[in-house]
Amino acid sequence: MLLPQIPVEIQHQQVLGCLGATGKQRIDRDLLDQVNEMILLGKSLLQPAAAVAQVRVSPAGDTVYLSGAAFHLPDLSQWLKGCSVASVAAVTVGETIEKEVERLFHRGLATRAVILDAVGTAAAEGAANQVVKLLARQMRIRGLFPTPRLGPGYRGLKMDYLPLFLEMAGGEQIAVTCNNFFQMNPVKSLCFMVGWSSEQQKEQVKCDFCHQANCQFRAVRTEGESGVVF
Questions:
Q1: Residue 54: its pLDDT value, please?
Q2: What pTM did the predictor assign?
């Protein structure tokens, strides 16, 4: 399934979180104005799109089979119990925003470049959340509920799996690739899987099964399917 246009909302709190700020810090007014300015610029540069494929899931102990491919996932197999199907997605906000970040750096506007880069990071995360919400509405009709997002680089899932995940998702449809060092192109892209279970899981966001409690990017739940704020 190809999703050529994804609505993405970006809040300044999300961008500040990507910049390392916490909710307890006092934010300088000038910085906040620059963040809001870069959000407006970023929105004009975003090209959010996704490619999604539905695959069969067969958990077997510490091994999970996805469309016949075996994955040794001792830390994550518990999240896929009761799942017979999963969605593998590749999501990107395009390369235009990263090109503008490079241009700003070359002009000596480092602060604006760093902020715009954070806008791109927040946008990619927001696009991924929107994809999960869309899929969740469709799967709810079948009485199925989402697991947390699971993807290469997340706890318990090696980056080595990224090329296979991209292949399963159909990342080539939106020109999302990775190199031999598992760096994605465009940079502001994500690749992940969501399992679908007949039982609603208490944990619905990826940070629920991560032990890094003090991570600056840690998400908290809001209303809605897998919705997060920073």
A1: 93
A2: 0.83
